[in-house]
Amino acid sequence: MYQLFGVSFLCFLQSSSYSIPLEELRFILSSLGRFIQIMEEVGSDDTVPESPLSKWRNDFSRAFQYYLDRSAPHKVNRWLGTLAAAAIYILRAYYVHGFYVISYGLSIYILNLLIGFMSPKVDPELEVLDGPSSPTKYSNEFRPFVRRLPEFKFWYATTKAFCVAFLMTFISIFDVPVFWPILFFYWFFLFFLTMKRQITHMIKYRYVPFNFGKQRYTGKRSAESTSGSSKD
Fold it and tell me: Residue 21, by phi and psi: left (phi above 0), alpha (psi -120 to 50) or beta?
């Protein structure tokens, strides 16, 4: 940027009709070169030091992401921790006898996550060009079930929701007085309609979002079958 300014200044001197003595021209050029060099050094050294708070936040974010990635294979332990967080929140809500609006919003949010967890990534009703992502009654070809919301993201969002809801129970502004049976029956009605629609969709397109009862093939079993055939 500063070099471009110097070149433009020289072009201006050459195009102007005003004659400058040689001594003054040398002085101007040397001063201009020294100015450009100083400004480039200042620009290269102009680094804002990282504050302790920002450094601590970056270190905490990296450590949290590291342990979060390490917890990915431990599915059972992760969900046991989520159940513990849910139990703590339920005990807290029962102890204070309030914050029913937070509990209602939390249950609606978890229901939305559950629907995403049980739904395929690509809805068969909307597929036109890519082909079905799950087996349907028109095809016997096996296709793996790909969730719209993966299990890890479902677990993380659910756990974070319980933790945030637990912290919100310590803020009195969220304790809105409501008649909680109305919220409970309204949520139950939404849950019934949503699950009915989801189960109907599962039956129609013949997919199961869970692995319970599905046949699994392992390398040991295949090795035993090959060894038995070779003995015969």
Answer: beta
